[in-house]
Amino acid sequence: MKSIEELERIKEETLQEIRLRSASGSPRIVVGMGTCGIAAGARDTMLAVLDELRKRKKLDVTVTETGCIGLCSQEPIVTVEIPGEPEVVYGKVDPDKARQIVVSHIINHKPVEEWVINVEEQML
């Protein structure tokens, strides 16, 4: 750190990150971060979600992580929860797909149908 300005910038970036992860009563994105998810690239997927939300200044979205839900073959799994709408679960979400999900589903309110997985069918 070389200046107070740099410290202030770091502080603001950190506060934005905290807001992204904790907004309540708002849309929520959950990334599967069990060992199977991490092995499949969920860390990069999570970072892409956070980066895209930050770029678009969409700070009212909660971003959290969860453990394995038993669909290892579909990892990385991303769930989008919008109040008043059905939960949507996406499978095999790489960073590029994650960014597109943020834009299409969160910003434009249009789920990306071809990436949606039916959890009940997958569990059979």
What does this structure look like?
Helices cover 46% and strands 14% of the residues. The chain has 124 residues and is of the alpha+beta class. Helix 3 (42-55) packs across helix 4 (95-107). The protein is globular and about 50 Å long. It starts with a helix and ends with a helix. The mean pLDDT is 88.
Question: What keyword list fits this structure?
Answer:
Glutaredoxin; single chain; 5 helices; 124 residues; four-stranded mixed β-sheet; alpha+beta
CATH homology-level superfamily: Glutaredoxin
* Low-confidence segments: none
Number of strands: 4
CATH architecture classification: 3-Layer(aba) Sandwich
Beta-sheet strand percentage? 5-15%
Number of domains: 1
Strand order of the largest sheet: 2-1-3-4
Q: What separation lies between the terminal Cα atoms?
A: 54 Å
What proportion of the residues is helical, as a percent range?
40-55%
Discrete helix count: 5
**Topology pattern, helix = H, strand = E:** HEHHEEEHH
Query: Average pLDDT, to the nearest integer?
Result: 88
How is the topology of this model organized?
Blueprint: H1 4-22, E1 28-32, H2 35-40, H3 42-55, E2 62-66, E3 78-81, E4 88-90, H4 95-107, H5 119-123
Parallel strand pairs: 1-2
Antiparallel strand pairs: 1-3, 3-4
Helix pairs in contact: 3-4
Summarize the entry for a quick read.
With 124 residues, the protein is an alpha+beta fold.
